[in-house]
Amino acid sequence: MDASAAEIHPAQTGPVPARPYGADASVNPGPDRAGDRYARELERHLDWLDSFTSTALGVLSAASGIYTYLGVRTLLDDPGLWTTFAALAYAIAVSVGIFVFWSYLLRLLPAVRSAASRVGLMLTMALGSVAIIAMSSWLNAAALAGGAAVETHMATTVQHYQTSLERAHANAVAGQSLSRDVARVRQSFQDLSEQEAGGTLSGFSGRGAVFRVLTQKSAELQALEEQLVLTLAPVEQTFAQGNTILSRMRGTSVAPGPLSDRTVSFSEDAVELAGLITQLRQLNPAPLVGRAAQDLADAVVLPELDGSTAATRAGQSSTIESVLSLVAQRAQTLTTAAAEVMALPEPDDALYKPMSAADAVIAYAGNFIPAWAGAISIDLLPAVLVFIIMVVQAAIRSGRGEGHSDDRMTVGELRAALAASEILRQHEGAGPSRTDRGYPPPPDDLRGGV
């Protein structure tokens, strides 16, 4: 055994005349001796592990500081010298804080024995761990997965824009389908006007007042139908443009190259696509049909009755009243159809909000659990070492017993003590030497300092 590492406990170095030097001390050891040997073995292991524990803790702290620096850089847009210095200072402060915090706990928490002290230090460790996560771990996660989180944000935004575009297009198509209802009502008025021309409605053939009312409403519906047809091409063209931009945005979100450049391009496409979605909402003809149906019933220009006799004019007046009642019914039908289209869910307001890597990794934390686990583990891994040392120290105390003294003496310290004892005896004449008192002389390896 190396003399500098050997330990001799005072409780075991007293004079034992019945056992001379060199005797085997391990013969029939008692329970206390076995526990003490077990404790000394664990202490030797701890001494060896302690030789590089500080170095390992420094490496972990430095690694956390590096990733913290990268995370801070994602939050600071200015690439100047002072920005670099500020990020570096913050990273160094984090590294030093982590190293000092865990160094304190590695030394103090395993050493305390009372339950109150342990609970207090554990609460302190929990509070410090939360502080480390707040000041370092989320920045480490941003450095590890920040770029991927921003790409995930862009991909999610593309899906949101696609949903809004498709819903706006579906609403516009539903509004255009009202053209069939308008055509049906227009056709009914045309058929009635033809019947009136033959004298079927009022009983008087010709193109009189009733015929003019019917053709008036038919012409209004014809104009509305033409307007609905004219919106078909712009709706499909706008929808095609939106799909083209969506395809370009998908490519931008996964394309190689600097993330900052891709974010700028993505933002420009997002603004253009938002304008197209708004345009689709405006091209929806359902509100136009609703207003036209209301005007169909309210705005009626009654012609002058042109019957030659009073009976003819009375018949024309009665027929016109019936026609107006029919117009009101048809207008109500169109109004109801238009209201059903306008009641469809509107597309959500599509708005792209650029995110920094640090913000994105928090917003999409559920998608990057491994990165978060690695970022937190690199900061909180020393907590495992603290618990390991606590368990080993408890085992050492259990092996030695509660009443055992932890005072230890190395071979060098024993030599110095023996030498001091002999010097005191020579100067004071206090009594016979060890040999005169019947003790065997110390072995040769212990007499170097006497």
From TrEMBL:
Entry keywords, A to Z: Membrane, Transmembrane, Transmembrane helix
Region Disordered, residue ranges: 1-34, 425-450
Plastid as UniProt keyword: no
Residue ranges crossing the lipid bilayer per the database entry: 48-70, 82-106, 118-139, 371-392
Protein name per Swiss-Prot or TrEMBL: DUF4407 domain-containing protein
Species for this entry: Paracoccus nototheniae
